[in-house]
């Protein structure tokens, strides 16, 4: 069996992940023929087909292809870990770290972390991938991201988790609503109001289950995948809503809505870093994690929690 190059393996992995030779070529900034040639080299060397080609529908992996792609991703991650380790031999963290972030939470906590990391490790480059709770787990599992900022409840069991803070759910209500002046609220009180739901995979079920377990069934009048639009709808008087992490730009007198703690004994959601450490954690990435944990000890995230 002939040797395969890292470049060929990356091309094949991209094709399998994206389900398309054309999309893989666009992502890798090369020709489609180069992607197709890499697939052909691997299939010839392995002696079996990695993909099933379907005209106008792209490609999908065969059973052997599924297993092969998992091995390729694991090897590419090990190769990447080797690269980052050898770049840091001089003792200075350098290279690129790819972080996946839950899109709704990212604007609140990410500037704090990036500012600190940039000051401490000026030669470190950060690539940010945003997505839903499910997407960012997939980013880590498929090797697209080195780590993910997410809630403990939504990570894979095989991931190591480093908690940064625990965020209990809170209510968002229009500034002129009676709940705003009361200062606290309950799920019972919120269930009697029209509800604006954050309609993202994982988030919707999380908030819906919260009401159902307490025996309430609120009426959802609007749903949105954007936390910014959610807050705008609440400020416009279209209903109330719930979130976990305080927006960084929240100004009580100017935002048009109020953030109100919930009195019910609802479990706080631990938020932190999830990482797949089956291949070991490179020193550069561990230095990044340690920096985040130091920020936690200094209370850098305390203002994001509503209690």
From TrEMBL:
GO cellular component, one term: cytosol
Record has DNA-binding as a keyword: yes
Limits of the HTH lysR-type domain: 4-62
Classification via Pfam families: HTH_1, LysR_substrate
GO MF entries: DNA binding; DNA-binding transcription factor activity
Annotated keywords: DNA-binding, Transcription, Transcription regulation
Similarity section: Belongs to the LysR transcriptional regulatory family.
Identification of the protein by name: Transcriptional regulator, LysR family
Organism: Sedimentitalea nanhaiensis
Organism phylogeny: Bacteria, Pseudomonadati, Pseudomonadota, Alphaproteobacteria, Rhodobacterales
């Amino acid at each position: 069996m002939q040797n395969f190059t890292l470049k060929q393996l990356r091309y094949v992995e991209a094709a399998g992940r994206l389900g398309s030779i054309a999309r893989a070529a666009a992502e890798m900034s090369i020709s489609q023929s180069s992607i197709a040639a890499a697939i052909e080299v691997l299939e010839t060397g392995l002696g079996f087909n990695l993909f099933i080609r379907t005209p106008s529908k792209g490609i999908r992996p065969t059973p052997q292809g599924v297993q092969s792609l998992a091995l390729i991703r694991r090897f590419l991650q090990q190769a990447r870990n080797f690269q980052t380790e050898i770049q840091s031999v001089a003792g200075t963290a350098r290279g690129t770290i790819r972080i996946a972030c839950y899109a709704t939470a990212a604007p609140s906590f990410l500037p704090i972390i990036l500012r600190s990391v940039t000051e401490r490790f000026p030669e470190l480059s950060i690539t940010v991938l945003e997505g839903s709770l499910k997407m960012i787990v997939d980013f880590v599992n498929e090797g697209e991201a080195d780590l993910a900022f997410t809630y403990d409840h939504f990570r894979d069991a095989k991931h190591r988790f480093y908690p940064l803070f625990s965020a209990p759910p809170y209510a968002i209500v229009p500034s002129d609503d009676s709940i705003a002046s009361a200062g606290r609220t309950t799920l019972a009180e919120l269930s009697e109001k029209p509800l604006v739901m954050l309609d993202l995979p994982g988030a919707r079920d999380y908030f819906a289950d919260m009401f159902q377990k307490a025996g309430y069934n609120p009426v959802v009048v609007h749903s949105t995948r954007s936390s910014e639009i959610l807050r705008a709808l609440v400020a416009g008087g279209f209903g109330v809503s719930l979130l976990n992490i305080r927006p960084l730009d929240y100004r009580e007198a100017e935002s048009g809505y109020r953030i109100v703690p919930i009195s019910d004994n609802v479990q706080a959601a631990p938020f932190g870093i999830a990482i797949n450490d089956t291949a070991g954690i490179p020193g550069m990435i561990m230095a990044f994690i340690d920096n985040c944990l130091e920020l936690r000890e200094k209370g850098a995230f305390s203002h994001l929690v509503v209690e």
